[in-house]
């Protein structure tokens, strides 16, 4: 679910949510834990994680090769002209790649 929890964190949560020590918690308790953890997430961190999924270029940018890989993994058949058009639309500094700042503008709809 995108949460990194150590064994000690899981033990602490279980102790709080399972005071009887049965080793199980009900769905409502589980749902509360997930809601609390989701509320603690920082949007910037989530956006950075998403960017890192796309950016496989050594410079930390999204290249046409990155987009080609991702679209193929998603089962989309886009040609290089279509992929380049996607980059060109958001490539503000005209270096042929999407950096994190440009990615933020995509995510924020700017």
Within CATH, the superfamily of the largest domain carries the name: EF-hand
- Rg, rounded, reads 20 Å
CATH domain topology of the largest domain: Recoverin, domain 1
Query: Structural class, judged by helices and strands?
Result: mainly alpha
Beginning-to-end CA distance, first to last residue: 28 Å
- What share of the residues lie within helices? 55-70%
Please state the second-level CATH architecture of the largest domain.
Orthogonal Bundle
Shape: elongated
Count of alpha and pi helical runs: 6
> How big a fraction of the residues is strand?
under 5%
Major pleated sheet: none
Task: Give average pLDDT, whole number.
Answer: 85
Order of helices and strands: HHHHHH
CATH class call of the largest domain: Mainly Alpha
Brief overview, please?
With 110 residues, the protein is mainly α. It has helices at residues 7-17, 27-40, 43-54, 64-73, 80-90, 100-107.
Task: Please specify the SSE layout and strand pairing.
Layout lengths: L6 H11 L9 H14 L2 H12 L9 H10 L6 H11 L9 H8 L3
InterPro entries: CALM/Myosin/TropC-like, EF-hand-dom_pair, EF_Hand_1_Ca_BS, EF_hand_dom
Keywords: Calcium, Repeat
Pfam family, one: EF-hand_7
Explained architecture:
InterPro entries: CALM/Myosin/TropC-like (IPR050230), EF-hand-dom_pair (IPR011992), EF_Hand_1_Ca_BS (IPR018247), EF_hand_dom (IPR002048). This is Centrin. One of its GO terms (molecular function) is calcium ion binding. It comes from Tritrichomonas foetus. Keywords: Calcium, Repeat. The protein is mainly alpha-helical and 110 residues long. It has two domains: 7-40; 43-107, Orthogonal Bundle (Recoverin, domain 1), CATH 1.10.238. The chain is built from six helices and no strands. The longest helix has 14 residues, at 27-40. The protein is elongated. The mean pLDDT is 85.
């Amino acid at each position: 679910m995108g949460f990194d929890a150590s064994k000690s964190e899981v033990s602490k949560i279980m102790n709080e949510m399972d005071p009887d020590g049965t080793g199980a918690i009900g769905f409502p308790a589980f749902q509360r834990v997930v809601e609390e953890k989701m509320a603690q997430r920082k949007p910037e961190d989530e956006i950075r994680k998403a960017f890192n999924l796309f950016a496989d270029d050594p410079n930390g940018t999204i290249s046409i090769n990155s987009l080609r890989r991702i679209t193929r993994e998603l089962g989309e058949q886009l040609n290089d002209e279509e992929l380049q058009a996607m980059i060109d639309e958001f490539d503000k500094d005209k270096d042929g790649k999407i950096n994190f700042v440009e990615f933020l503008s995509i995510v924020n709809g700017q």
